[in-house]
């Protein structure tokens, strides 16, 4: 029992850190629906933008599971960008560590894939200190949908367990993270917890919500602007912070930084 509680706690760590929905991959796949914004986005810009998130995810997962990141496993991928601030190995049970390490290596693959196609940019300064996770803002990562699905399924099994020391259930926790992300993103309800009011569940019939979907149970996408608002923790694509103390890189993100 104690062991299970421990495993739950460690899963919660990742609940906080992880993604509960729309992904950086959705930008890659749906960039033609990139939305209406003041910045013109070429295909190259739209392909480079997710590098910001891939760097963050790679470092986060690698450090969390192995205790070191790109500088050790694949230094050239960082293209000379600064080492992340505050990165540490997480206290994980064997199972969770295994899953997270797999995610870490997948992110390395994604970085390689993007850089094979576009020039890219060096790793931006990342702040993945524990304190910023404690702010829940860390829960705002946009992670790829497959990883998202794995984590959601793990957590759904534990939906009714209390998260120590917060005294609220896993289900409630996911709701709060989703609310925060929706609020920061300013684009309505794109993120949902594991258990939702029935009218938000699939076809209005169920309240279990392992996978997030819109009214047709289709995946939703976020524009670069929405993602920046969320990962900066500021709700404003012009105001960097949280994971990206100096802002994200690439033409799209930089065009907003210049404006202010
Ligand atoms: C974007 O929105 C602005 C203001 O709402 C509008 O004037 C413009 O035509 C829109 N552009 C596109 C490409 O939809
Ligand atoms: C990194 O995040 C921590 C926790 O939020 C904060 O105390 C620290 O000042 C941040 N560092 C930078 C350089 O932004």
Automatic annotation (TrEMBL):
Classification via InterPro entries: Pigment-catalase-like
Domain of life from the UniProt record: Eukaryota
Keyword Transport annotated: no
Signal peptide: 1-23
Record's keyword terms, sorted: Signal
Keyword field contains Disulfide bond: no
Pfam families registered for this protein in UniProt: Ferritin_2 (PF13668)
PANTHER family in the cross-refs: DESICCATION-LIKE PROTEIN
Name this protein carries in UniProt: Desiccation-related protein PCC13-62
Species this protein is from: Malus domestica
